[in-house]
Amino acid sequence: MPPDPIHAAIADHRQAWNAFQVAPEGEDTILANDAMSEALDALLAASCATRPGARALLAHLRWWLAEEAEFAAGYQPAYGRAEARAAELAMLLGAPASGSGGADPIHAVLDAANTAETEHTLACEALDETDDASMRGCNAACERASVARHAMMRTLPATLGGLRALACHYVRWGEAWADDGFLHIARSLAGCEPRLGLTPGSDR
Questions:
Q1: Chain mean position to CA 164
Q2: Closest CA to 94 of 46, 47, 55
Q3: Residues paired with residue 192 on neighbouring β-strands, in sequence order
Q4: CB atoms within 10 A of CB 175
Q5: Cα 103 from Cα 91, distance rounded (Å)
Q6: How many CB atoms lie under 10 A from the CB of residue 13?
Q7: pLDDT on residue 100
Q8: What gap in Å lies between CA 164 and CA 170, rounded to an integer?
Q9: pTM (whole model) above 0.90
Q10: From CA 168, how far away is CA 181, in angstroms rounded?
């Protein structure tokens, strides 16, 4: 299995951050800041291909968010995006095993959707339109992502943590289908039983 590309994105961001810390005042600082911002944008747009990669990204984001908390306002909206990505990763990596008692069903479908979306993204990045096998692989990845996405949209979260994980997922992936994401969250809220947290009521 090839190395998870997220590790390179993490290294690039850390290197750019380190360079900014020691850049001389003046134009060098401006250039280093621009490079750091570009590396952060690339990091937040990058996909994790493995769970170890996801854990590495979560650790890196937690470090950066704590390190730059004092300057959060100056990093917006990227700082907020980083918080959302970290929250999503924490939810997914810390989710109970599928089928365990009381587990929120949204975590399993979110995990599957993230995996499928990542595989599709990687397949598109490696696509060779002159190669039939490459085209078939990309089309198959697209189909798997579509199936996983529809399964996710049919599932409503049963806990506050699940709802937050769902919202974080749409912050990351939802630009292309924001309307569907909004409706999914709206359905989740409409189906809640107020007295029982976010467990859907039997009379809904």
A1: 12
A2: 55
A3: 200
A4: 9
A5: 12
A6: 23
A7: 40
A8: 10
A9: no
A10: 11
Phi, psi of 200 (to 5 degrees): -55, 135
Q: What distance in Å separates the CA atoms of residue 105 and residue 124, rounded to the nearest whole number?
A: 29
Please name the amino acid found at residue 191.
Answer: G
Q: What is the CA radius of gyration of the chain?
A: 19
Q: Which residue has the tokens 């069903």?
A: 105
**pLDDT tens digits, residue range 56-112?**
998 899 889 888 888 888 888 888 888 888 888 887 777 433 334 446 778 778 877
How far apart, in whole angstroms, are the C-alpha atoms of residue 71 and residue 65? 10
The residue behind tokens 């993490």 is 10
Confidence band, pLDDT 50/70/90 cuts, at residue 47: confident
Q: Give 156's Cβ-side CA count (13 Å radius).
A: 16
String of DSSP letters for 19-39: HHHHPPTTHHHHHHHHHHHHH
* Residue 11 burial class via C-beta count within 10 angstroms: exposed 0-12, middle 13-18, buried 19 and up: middle
